[in-house]
Each structure stands twice: as C-alpha cells, then as structure tokens.
Amino acid sequence: MTRAWVAGIVLAALSLLRAQDAPKVSEGALTIEDVLTYAMQGMTDEFIINQVKRNAKPFDLNSDEVAALRERGISDAVIGYMRNPSQPYTPPPPPAPPPASSNTGSPPQPPSPAKSKPPSDPRILKLPPEAGIYYLKSEVDFATLDLKPMVPSKQPGKMASLSGGLLNGHIVGSLIGEAAKTRVAGPSAIFFFRLGEKASIDDLALLSVDPSGNQRDLDFGKKPGKPVFPVSSVKQFESKEIVPGIYRLTVPLSKPGEYIFFILGSGDEKKGLLGKGYDFGVDKPGKTPAASGVTK
Predict the structure, then answer these.
(1) Distance of alpha carbon 115 from alpha carbon 181, whole angstroms
(2) How far apart (Å, rounded) are the C-alpha atoms in residues 223 and 47?
(3) What's the number of CA atoms in the CB half-sphere (13 Å) around residue 129?
(4) What percent of the chain has pLDDT over 90?
(5) Is 285 helix (H, G, I), strand (E, B) or coil?
(6) In a domain, 207, yes or no
(7) Alpha-carbon distance 181 to 261, whole Å?
(8) pLDDT tens, residue by residue, 285-295
(9) Torsional sign, CA 46, 50, 56, 61
(10) Which entry of 115, 185, 269, 278 is 20 to 30 Å from 287 by CA?
(11) pLDDT tens profile 66-100
C-alpha cells in the first residue's frame, strides 16, 4: 500500500467529514477538489495561486491534508496561499544559467524547462472561478448570466402546487421580469459554461421564452415533472469541452428575443419550482451598445 494511495484515501475521508460536519461553503467557492483539478489540468502555480487569492477565503488545512496535497503534486507555495490568500504574490525569478564549461570554452545549453500544456482555448484562463454561464463580450471580458427560477404563471384550484400554471391543459412557467439583464449581440455568440457540483452538459437546453407583460413565459407541456417543450422553443447550440468541467457554447442568434439556458431536472414540486436556468436577451440590429452585448 503506497503512501500516495493512503494520502488520497485520507483526503477523500477528510472531505467527506467536512461536508457532513462543517457549514456548507457558499455555491461557487473554491474547494480543495478545485485546486486538485487545476493541478491535474496542468495549470501553473501562478494560475492556481491567482484563483486562490481571488477566492479570498483561507483553507483550514491540517497536517494530514497538507501531506495529501503534497502527494498529489500541489507545491508548498500553493499550499501557503491556500492557508493565507491575503499575502502578496510575486512570481519566482527565472533560474540562473549554469556556469560556462572550462572544457569547451562555451557555456552548455540549459535544458528546456518543462511547460504545462496550455488549454485549447486560453480565454478560459480569465474565466471567473464560480460555477455558471458567462457570455464572452470581448477577448478579456465576460458577462455573468443570472440564474433565474421558473415558477408557475397561474395557480388554479387545489392542485396548483402539483400542476403549475395551466393554459389549455398545458403547464406554463414564467421568468420574473420583462427582459434579461445581460444583452447579447448577434449574429452568433460564445458562452462558457463552468459546471457546478453534479452538473452535466447534457442537462442544458437552450429555449426561447415569450414576453408577456412583466414576465416571460414557457410552455412545459401537460405532465408535471416531465417537461415537453414546443419544438419552436427549442434552439440549437454547439458545445465543446475545453478542459474537464468547462465547456464553450457557440450559439447562432439569427432572431432577436429572450432566451434561457434551462437546466433539465432542476424543478422542485414541493417548492412550486418548475426549474431554473440562465437567461439572456438578443436585441434587434441597430440597438445602442448599452443595450447590446453589455450588462446593464
């Protein structure tokens, strides 16, 4: 039984105990597992330290956890910032060249330093660390899509908590607000989806929603808990995994309107919730920049 295998078991057990006994960390906060994932993806210490400092929450690491992190290839520098992310960071200087060889009269060529393989789309290096969907406004700027609940638009009779809003026998859900805060410019757009815990790209559906006064409506079909959306509401998009847990979404936007990346299976009948998703809007051509591609 190797030390690395034992350290891995210790880290997994400690993570499980913390999940049961400690207060839950707010959604999107950096975890030990996130740090390990970055290391497995080949991210540099500088990148991981920047994420830790951005998270701004110190890790309460005991000696067993530190040993397990070292066994998994996490450097002492990263561990130090995990314990105290507020300390300033200065990248280490490049190594000094070796002395000249006295035999040949010329300095030997230093070996090429090992470099981590960059991701296929380097723009993800500037992606916020929290789980969610982000609209790529420019090569260095992202707009965060709001996560919105989809609630029944009507409450008819005693079966309201189970049936939701009804329209000609169909369940109708609504997003509060007549328009999404994040506006996107066409004719196509790029989003990045950082998966959260237990999330899957297969659970994501792009749907159009119909403005109706101060809300936006979506037909869920006739069966509670088993949404069947109209074909006209379902929109196509292309997804590509850049690194584990991060997908690039390419969306054609030929028609202005209101849209939602709906999370399938996110409904909760006991709470009267039909589901939730990330909304955005597409304006007609000719809109001012403040209303097209810029978060209000």
Answers:
(1) 41
(2) 47
(3) 22
(4) 32
(5) coil
(6) yes
(7) 14
(8) 766 544 444 33
(9) negative
(10) 278
(11) 888 898 889 888 888 888 888 887 766 666 666 65
Q: Distance between terminal CA atoms of the chain?
A: 57
Q: Is residue 106 part of a domain?
A: no
Total structural domains in the chain? 2
Residue 31 lies in a domain: yes
Kindly give, in sequence order, each residue whose CB lies less than 8 Å from that of residue 8, ignoring residues fewer than 6 positions away: 68, 71, 72
Q: Establish if 97 belongs to a structural domain.
A: no
Q: Residue 85 has what pLDDT?
A: 86
Q: Residue 232 belongs to what domain range? A: 125-291
Residue after which a domain boundary falls, among 31, 63, 83: 83
User: Are 136 and 8 in a shared domain?
Assistant: no
Please check whether residues 33 and 134 belong to one and the same domain.
Answer: no
CA 248 to chain centre: 11
Q: Check residue 251 and give its pLDDT.
A: 94
Tell how strand 204-212 and strand 215-219 pair up.
Answer: antiparallel
What's the chain's length in residues? 296
Query: Is the preceding peptide bond at 118 cis, omega within 30 degrees of 0?
Result: no
